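Lab notebook: predicted structure, single chain.

Context: the supervisor wants predicted structures on file for every construct in the current expression panel, including those that have not yet been purified. This is the next one on the list. No modifications to the sequence; it matches the entry in the shared construct table.
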Amino acid sequence: MSLEQSHCVGGRIGWQPRYLIAETPQGRLLGAAPCYVKSHSRGEYVFDHGWADAFERAGGDYYPKLQVSVPFTPVTGPRLLARPGPQAGHIRDALAEALAKLTDANDLSSAHVTFCTEPEWRMLGERGYLQRTDQQFHFENPGYANFDDFLAQLSSRKRKTIRRERKEAHPPGIDIVCLTGKDLTEDAWDAFFAFYMDTGSRKWGSPYLTREFFSLIGERMADRIVLIMARRAGRYIAGAINFLGADTLYGRNWGAIEHHPFLHFEVCYYQAIDYAIRHKLRWVEAGAQGEHKLARGYLPHTTYSAHYIANPGLRRAIADYLERERAYVEAASEELAAAAPFRKDLAEQE
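Prediction complete. Output recorded below exactly as produced.
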């Protein structure tokens, strides 16, 4: 709702909401899927630009397509929503079937269910959707008492590196604050929006979120937001926005108007770990991609997406590509996990 009301989706943005619902003849809601008709592939974090280019070079029209996701949000969660009960599985089946039929009936090239749960991914695969995997880096908190307790589990070299980076991120004159609830003032949002626009304009040219969006979420879910901000001489100079789930801190956007050594790592990664430990959260998901997170305690985790491709020739080509890509992702995840910074022998003597 906040995305639509703040004009982040809809209009000429290229994300046209088309929510799929399942209901009884009497109008009782049974299930739903968050769908968007897309005229491009931006803001999805599951990249299909190569598929689009290949299809269009062959004379096809890849756009419009149907996207089943939360816009601009690389966070795993259920995408085929069903009312709890004995019929939930049948409702999800009906939604999956309807997505394919809608794609065909409306001359769309494809339907993409991204960042779905693994059970949904398996179910959609059984129903003919092509299966794709990727990886993110997540921090897991098994019950650390504090940040030093976490550091004690790392190899000596990694531990020293993190301590050095944190120290250099805190030179005299810079302090870091966590804002949530009533502390999320419009002044704080003004500052963070400037950071967001700077990062967005440098990375992808046209930032997705409007200034109004941040005010709306500040009004509606302030207690579920943690804004980690760095100040120098009382002025905000950098920040990262995080959202609170039941047991997870979800890191999203970061930006800065001044650049200081390791401030990005401190604000985005170390402060998030510290917050999760202090508030007894189990996980920190620090956004998409980023193998540099591995050395900072974030381990690889598989993400899932499923794709219905209408054109048989394009479908065969993508299926072949995804078979090889899945093998690569699995091998890369195993290799990265083996390079984790944690001590191989927790009984080693310092």
